[in-house]
Amino acid sequence: MQIAPGTNFLGMPVSGYITEDSTRVEQKPLEELAPLFQALLDDPTIVEFGWTQYTPYFNDGDTCEFSVHGLWVKTTAEAEGAVDEYGDEYEVWDLEVDYHPSLGKVEGHWEGEWPYRVFVKDSYEGPDEDRYNRCHDLDRALQSGEFETELLNNFGDHAQITVRKNGIEVDSYSHD
Questions:
Q1: How far is CA 41 from CA 7, 91, 135, 175, in A?
Q2: What pTM was computed for the model?
Q3: What is the rounded CA–CA span in Å between residue 32 and residue 96?
Q4: Residues of 96-125 as b/e, b for ≥16 C-beta within 10 angstroms?
Q5: Residue 54 main-chain phi, psi, to 5 deg
């Protein structure tokens, strides 16, 4: 279904196509996601960011459930033609926040026994720890499942979302 003209998400225009279908109960409201979203939009070094969201086609007999996957972030470093170690331009999957080339990285270790293990941060290496933390805060919120109803209702299933300072683009996402 084509997104109706004038549709917006957190005050930003949205264009493209969505697939409607949600049986989820209400979760956290968008007002709780807004400051995390805005923190990336306000950062002058972040050019765009996005994620994919979809329901898997199969899951080895388990129920297939909608979820959000892998926040990626393009900073001015990647927009200015930076290349990976093979000389290729970065693709969105190269820019996921967990292994991002210009956000920096956190060294740490795991403590405790499964399923109660926790990651203990030892040190940060990179240009801006606050930016790194803001990106990870949004990633955790998106993948927490606490906003899935809102994200599914606003962007649809099997979607790739790209957020820029002037709007949000929704594209169909094919996955295996």
A1: 19, 20, 11, 28
A2: 0.79
A3: 22
A4: bbeebbbbbebeeeeeeeeeeeeeeeeebe
A5: -170, 165
Tokens 């920096």 -> residue: 104
Peptide bond into 115 cis (omega under 30): yes
Tokens 């990626």 — which residue?
A: 72
Backbone angles phi, psi at 111, to 5 degrees: -130, 150
Tokens found for residue 76: 């001015």
Q: Which of 73, 92, 67 is nearest to 143 (CA)?
A: 67
Q: Give the integer Cα–Cα distance in Å for 13 and 125.
A: 36
Q: 51 has which bridge partners?
A: 161
Q: How many CB atoms lie within 10 A of CB 14?
A: 20
pLDDT in tens, 63-121: 788 889 989 999 999 987 777 778 888 888 889 998 899 999 999 999 999 888 988 98
**Could you give the CA distance from residue 13 to residue 7 in angstroms, rounded to a whole number?**
6
